[in-house]
Amino acid sequence: MPKYMLHGNYAAAGAAGVLKDGGSGREKAVKDLVESVGGSFETIYWALGTDDFYLTVSLPDSHAAAALSIAVAATGSVRATTSELMTAADLDDVISRRVSYRAPGA
In the structure, what pLDDT confidence band is assigned to residue 31 with cuts at 50, 70 and 90? Predict the structure, then answer.
C-alpha cells in the first residue's frame, strides 16, 4: 500500500477539540479515520513551528487519500496537505523511466 504523509494546522475549533480530547483521543480519531478508508495508521506527531501535526499512514490508493482529505477539510477544523511518500526503490523506478519532453520555447 502506498504511504502518505499528512501535515497541517488546526483552526480554532480543531485546537479546541485537541484541548478537549487530548493527544490520545485525537490519535484514536485519526486511526479510526484512516481505517475507515481501508488504510493503516502508522504515526502521528505534534510539533512546534509551521505545522501543528505530522502523520504517516498507508492507504490503498490516491482515491482513498482524496476521500480522507475531503472529509477532513469539510469539517473546517483542520487544514492539511497530503503527500505520497516514496522509498529508495520507488525513486529508482521513477528515475529508470525514460521521458520524452520538449521544454517550452526549446
Answer: very high
Q: Specify the DSSP class assigned to residue 54.
A: E
pLDDT tens digits for range 34-72: 999 999 999 999 999 999 999 999 999 999 999 999 999
What are the grid coordinates assigned to 22, written together? 487530548
pLDDT at res. 39:
98
The whole-angstrom separation of Cα 83 and Cα 48 is: 20
| Domain range list for the chain | 3-96
| Options 3.30.70.920, 2.30.30.700, 3.10.180.10, 3.20.20.450; CATH of 3-96 | 3.30.70.920
Q: Does the predicted model carry a pTM greater than 0.85?
A: yes
Residue in this structure with the C-alpha cell 505530522, named with its chain if needed: 54
Residues 6/46, Cβ–Cβ less than 8 Å: no
Report the distance separating Cα 46 and Cα 21, nearest Å: 14
CB 54 within 8 A of CB 5: yes
